[in-house]
Specification:
2 domains; 3-stranded mixed beta sheet; 5 helices
């Protein structure tokens, strides 16, 4: 593992801990050249699965796309990042069970369902993009229906 400060390849692990209910390992590392300390995470890579887009194209699932979309929804919100990671892990486990792949619409709906339990504002932000409202009135109607 390269040092984040000096890019040296010689680093040593000074502490390891299980996180995310044992699904990941958090490691504290120290560079043997400059002494900088940094944290790395190891996670089992999920079996890749295909995502069918609304136009019929198929792509390999990309976790970073889900993470980016969630970070946009949580922009300037106080959020426990562990909750977001846990939600993504749970969804990926569910999606990977489907041997035929998953649709992008299902991914969006499942993310919305998780967001509703974590943060209402992030839920509304994500829904506004996912549902592509054509007017402010339709958006307000959605909020009234969903949040009462």
């Amino acid at each position: 593992m390269r040092c984040v400060k000096c890019r040296n390849l010689d680093t040593k692990v000074i502490d390891s801990r299980l996180v995310e209910d044992g699904r990941s390992i958090r490691r504290r590392r120290e560079c043997e050249a400059c002494g900088a300390r940094f944290t790395t995470f190891e996670r089992v890579e999920f079996i890749s699965f295909m995502v069918t887009k609304s136009d019929g194209r198929k792509d390999v699932y990309d976790r970073s796309k889900v993470q980016r979309s969630l970070m946009k929804a949580f922009n300037k919100r106080t959020v426990d990042h562990a909750k977001i990671e846990q939600a993504i892990n749970e969804l990926e486990n569910e999606w990977a069970q489907n041997k035929k792949g998953i649709t992008s619409k299902r991914i969006g709906k499942d993310i919305l369902s998780k967001l509703r339990d974590i943060d209402e504002v992030a839920y509304i932000r994500y829904a506004s993009i996912y549902n592509n409202f054509d007017s402010a009135e339709r958006f307000a109607e959605f909020i009234r229906e969903e949040l009462g």
